[in-house]
Design brief:
Blueprint: E1 28-33, E2 40-45, E3 48-51, H1 52-57, H2 77-80, H3 84-98, H4 104-111, E4 114-116, E5 120-123, E6 131-134, H5 138-148, E7 165-167, E8 173-175, E9 180-181, E10 184-187, E11 196-199, E12 203-204, E13 207-213, E14 232-239, E15 242-243, H6 244-250, E16 264-266, E17 271-272, H7 273-276, E18 280-281, E19 301-302, E20 305-311, E21 318-324, H8 332-340, E22 351-353, H9 368-371, E23 379-380, E24 386-387, E25 395-404, E26 407-410, E27 414-419
Bound molecules: manganese (II) ion.
Residues 133, 206, 208, 240, 355-356 line the site of manganese (II) ion (MN).
C-alpha cells in the first residue's frame, strides 16, 4: 500500500488545494475550542481542523486500531503508541473520506467534524520525553568554525565521521506563539576578567527542523539506518533560541547548557514522514566514507524550503534567510542510528532536532550569528534600525513547505515574540 496521496488528488473541502494543508499533507496536531475547550487530536485540511474524536464517534474510523480516548488527549502520544502502521492507515483513511469523489452523505457527516482553524487554539503536539539537538549542517558547522577557530580547520576532526549532537532540555519546548523572555546569565566577553550577570545581548534564533519518534526498541538494542523510517512519525519547524554570549562563556568543555535551555519553539502541525516521502532528494556526498553502521541505502534527504523573517515592533516583516532542509550532511536515518548505536532507547514523543540549517550562500544562513557574521554585517530592518541579534519586541517567524506540481505541503508558522528580560 502506497503511503503517498497522488498530487492529482483533490479534496471536496473548498480551496484546500491552494493552502499548505491540501489533501496530500494531513498533518496532526492538538487543538482546543473556546475558553474551556478540551484538548484533542486534529488533522489540518485547508483552513479547517478535523476533530478525530468526533470522526471516530461517527464510526468512520472503526476498522482501525484506535480507541476514542486516543483522540481525546492533550498530546499525540496515545495515538502514536498504536504504531506507525496504524497511524499511516489512519491518515490514508482520512484522505479517502476527504477525496472529491466521496458521496454527499459522507461529506455531510464529515463536515460536522470540522472546526475552523481561526477559531481554534493550537497546543504543543507531543508530550516530549527527551530532546536531542544535532549539528548536522556542514555549512553551519563550517561558518561557526571559521568565525571562532582557524578557518583552515573549520570542521573539527570528528565532524564528518559522526553526527555531532547533545542532549537538550524538553521542558522548555513551547508551541508557536508563546512569548520568549530574554534570558539572563553569566557572560564574560574577554574570558580574562570576572564574569558578570546580565540579560543576554546576543539573543539568536536557530533555523532547524525536528523529527518526532514512535516508541523505539528496548534499551540495549539498536535502530539501523534501514529501520529508522519505521520509527519516525513526522517533523516540525524548530527554533532553537540561543544566547551566544552566555554560550561562549559556558560551553567549554561539555557543550551548550543555559544558553540553549530557556526556550525552543515548535510549529503546531506534525507533518508525517509519509506526507514528505514524495519530496525525497539526494543528500550531499559523504566523504570520507562513514562507518558501516552509518551507511544507508535509498534517497534520504528531503527538499523542504525554509524561511526566517523578523517582524520588528515598529516596522514590517523582513525576510533574513531562505534555506532548505535538503542541505543536511547527516540525514535523519543516520542521526537515529547513531543515537541508538550504544543501546540508548527511543521513546514515543522524543524530539530530535537537526541543528541550524544553513545553505551554501549568504542569503541561506540559519542564524543571526552567521547572517550578520559575528556583528560585522548588520541587517537593515527598513525602519531605521539594524540587527546583529534579536531585539526585545521582535517576532521571529520560521516558515517551511515542500512543493511539487503546484501542491504545497507546509508546516504552518513557528513564531515567537521576544519580551524584555526580568529583573
Ligand atoms: Mn541548535
Amino acid at each position: 500500500m502506497s503511503k503517498s496521496i497522488p498530487f492529482s488528488a483533490r479534496s471536496w473541502v473548498h480551496g484546500s488545494e491552494l493552502t499548505e494543508f491540501p489533501i496530500q499533507n494531513l498533518p496532526f496536531g492538538i487543538f482546543s475550542e473556546g475558553y474551556l475547550g478540551h484538548c484533542r487530536v486534529g488533522v489540518a485540511i485547508g483552513e479547517w481542523i478535523i476533530d478525530l474524536s468526533r470522526l471516530h464517534a461517527l464510526n468512520y474510523l472503526s476498522m482501525l486500531p484506535f480507541e476514542n480516548d486516543d483522540f481525546r488527549s492533550k498530546s499525540l502520544n496515545k495515538m502514536m503508541m498504536r504504531g506507525k502502521k496504524a497511524c499511516s492507515a489512519l491518515r490514508l483513511r482520512i484522505a479517502d473520506l476527504l477525496d472529491s469523489s466521496q458521496d454527499a452523505i459522507v461529506k455531510d457527516e464529515f463536515t460536522s467534524c470540522l472546526v475552523k482553524m481561526s477559531e481554534a487554539k493550537m497546543h504543543l503536539p507531543v508530550d516530549i520525553g527527551d530532546y536531542t539537538d544535532f549539528y548536522s549542517s556542514e555549512d553551519h558547522a563550517r561558518n561557526v568554525g571559521m568565525m571562532f577557530r582557524d578557518p583552515a580547520k573549520a570542521l573539527l576532526p570528528n565532524w564528518k565521521h559522526l553526527p555531532v549532537g547533545y542532549h537538550g532540555r524538553a521542558s522548555s519546548i513551547v508551541i508557536s506563539g508563546t512569548p520568549i523572555i530574554r534570558p539572563c546569565g553569566q557572560v564574560n566577553a574577554s574570558d580574562e576578567t570576572q564574569p558578570s550577570f546580565a540579560p543576554t545581548k546576543q539573543l539568536d534564533f536557530e533555523l532547524e527542523m525536528a523529527f518526532i519518534t514512535f516508541d523505539g526498541k528496548p534499551m540495549g538494542e539498536r535502530i539501523s539506518t534501514a529501520e529508522a523510517d519505521d520509527y519516525i512519525f513526522g517533523m516540525v519547524l524548530f527554533n532553537d533560541w540561543s544566547a551566544r554570549d552566555i554560550q561562549r562563556w559556558e560551553y567549554v568543555p561539555l557543550g551548550p547548557f543555559l544558553a540553549k535551555n530557556f526556550a525552543s519553539t515548535v510549529s503546531p502541525w506534525v507533518v508525517t514522514l509519509d506526507a514528505l516521502e514524495p519530496f525525497r532528494t539526494i543528500g550531499p556526498p559523504q566523504d570520507p566514507e562513514v562507518l558501516p553502521y552509518l551507511q544507508y541505502t535509498g534517497i534520504k534527504n528531503i527538499d523542504i524550503n525554509l524561511q526566517v523573517a523578523i517582524h520588528p515592533e515598529n516596522g514590517n516583516e523582513v525576510v533574513v534567510s531562505n534555506s532548505n532542509y535538503k542541505h543536511m550532511y547527516w540525514n535523519m536515518n543516520q542521526q537515529l542510528a547513531h543515537h541508538t548505536i550504544g543501546g540508548c532507547n527511543m521513546r514515543c514523543g522524543d524530539m530530535l532536532a537537526s541543528g541550524t540549517i544553513s545553505g551554501p550562500t549568504e542569503g541561506s544562513f540559519g542564524s543571526m550569528l552567521e547572517i550578520a557574521w559575528k556583528g560585522t554585517k548588520p541587517v537593515d530592518m527598513g525602519n531605521g534600525t539594524t540587527r546583529n541579534f534579536i531585539h526585545d519586541g521582535d517576532v521571529v517567524i520560521l516558515r517551511g513547505y515542500a512543493e511539487q506540481e503546484g501542491i504545497k505541503v507546509g508546516f504552518g508558522v513557528c513564531s515567537g515574540k521576544v519580551l524584555p528580560a526580568k529583573d
